[in-house]
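cron nightly-structures :: item 1 of 1
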Amino acid sequence: MEDNEHAHHAAKNDKVYVIKKERVWQGIAAVLGIVIIVMFFGKFGGSNQAAPAQAQVPTQQQPQDSGEQLRLTIDEDDDPTLGDKNAPVTIVSFEDYQCPFCGRAFQQTFPLIKKDYIDTGKVKYIYRDFPLSFHPEAEPAAEAANCAGEQGKYWEMHDSIFQNQDSMGNAAYKQFAQKIGLDTKKFNECLDSSKYKQEILDDFNYGSQVGVSGTPTFFINGIKLVGAHPYESFKQIIDTELSS
């Protein structure tokens, strides 16, 4: 159809208003500008909070003054431990092998904590599993690390998995086992049996009981720190604990 078939034609006694094309485009531009501003502040303004359906998505929070924080007693269980068992400060971490924030903490923060505090006998570091439901490889990866632990190489597998978060799966874990010098037959049998599935679930349930809802979550002498915080956040709390 021609455009004029849908046009409203003015009668002789109708008032006709002529709007210049430039003004039309100016009006449209103004409206679009308002929409863009609203969208910008809606996306980037305010706090970075997860939607209710994503309550378990890890968030980053600034640590409060350790003197004002609630201090919890966290069960150390029999989970993998680094450092002097009699160290004055204990860090219990709840992590997920597929969590990108945990990967960031491992790459950027953990090496400094290990060098300055774990290797010097000031901190004992305990790893507990908290595989989130929307990370399907988190639980199998935790099983792989525990199976490697049977041969005394838990931390070697732990490191291999975090260093290769883009290559996860049982086939990858079996390759890691060979690279770190495990008896691959024993490791493969352990991994295929899922023998540590319940122990990992127990870690998750305990974490939920003490208020863990996302990863990584750390308890530094019972003081809770959530998220992939920079090294300075850990240092502040650890040094306060060491001086108290």
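cron nightly-structures :: done
The two ends are 85 Å apart (CA to CA).
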